[in-house]
Amino acid sequence: MSQLQIRNIGQLFVGKGQVLTGQALAIDHGRVSYLGAEGGLTARGDVIDAGGGLVSPGLVDAHTHLVFAGDRADEFAQRCAGATYLEIAQKGGGILSTVRATQLASEKELVELALPRLAALLAQGVTTAEVKSGYGLTVDDELKMLRVIRRLQGLQPISLVPTLLALHAVPQGVDRSAWVRTVLTELLPRVAQDKLAVFCDVFVEQSAFTADEAREVLRAARALGLLPRLHVDQLTPGKGAELAAELSAVTADHLEHASDAGMRALGAAGTVAVLAPISTLYLRQRPFANGRKLRDAGVSVALCTNCNPGSAMTENVALAMGLACLECGLTPLEALEAFTGNAAHALRVQHAGHLRLGDPADVVIFKAKSPAHLVWHLGQSEVRAVLKAGKLVHGG
Ligand code: NIG
Fold it and tell me: Which of 22, 78, 321, 386 is the Cys-Cys partner for 335 at CB 3.0 to 4.6 Å?
């Protein structure tokens, strides 16, 4: 029997701020085939009892760097003693430390290191995630990272959206403009030809790349069919939100230091803001990104774990949601929307982030009764079960 029913749902979040009660779901051949009153369900197929919990679309993690090798626990300790992320980077640590370890690792090793991170995300309810390169920083090593992401797609249930982030840091011992040229002339064409990435991303920051370098690379990437996105205004104010709007970037990520004018520009451009509050906490930075102001400026706000070894060594979606409420000014329902529909929009994935008839049934069943209960139990996963395309892939 290929039908599956989810009964005894407390609140059903279907997307776009809509929370329904008294509803049940049926799934046929992996797709939502019924969404309506529980009394209207015919009794056939297997039944999952949601126990009166909240049910939502599978969560979407809009920004991760979860393919990497190496260890940066020492940097955490250095920051606790007062060093900043930028100071650690200036001394050759930070991203470049992970680049050294990732260059030395084989594809197989990188796959094995990434699988438990994906399993941890799945246990948090994530059924779609973006994953970036950016720790290769040579043509071969960036391609290696993107091939690892492709291999991971076949080895576990989460749908992966790959991003080329060749402009993540200036490679050690390499002239910065030479690296930008190599990316433009060698790497981008190969990535486009082999369809290894959907997005091209650039880290615009004092310690990384300039707005002009981002313009050049993202325009070339777009011409080759890769969609633009940006890490901006994370550590210092740099008019990054304005840049993302100017380039009609699909997303502008981080935005702790975005200006009011930049936020309005993002709203006008339709660029999605992807906030990473765990990183703000983890790097002991202030302020947090102002999610409230962004939403008020008409910006669609998405959230992410930003799972990576430097600024967010965690897969904790629940913590990201809680911080988004406590520090970025989102309501619990907005935080859930930021991890579902808005994140799916950020990744240009059409059939995720909402529950509609005919959609692939990516579903999370929570123990929590409501969005408020999700964040109330701060940093704790309230996930009871996860379905990917109608198949039970976590819990039960
Ligand atoms: O999104 N800001 C740049 N990239 C990551 C951190 C990467 C690292 O430190 O390894 C981020 O926070």
Answer: 321
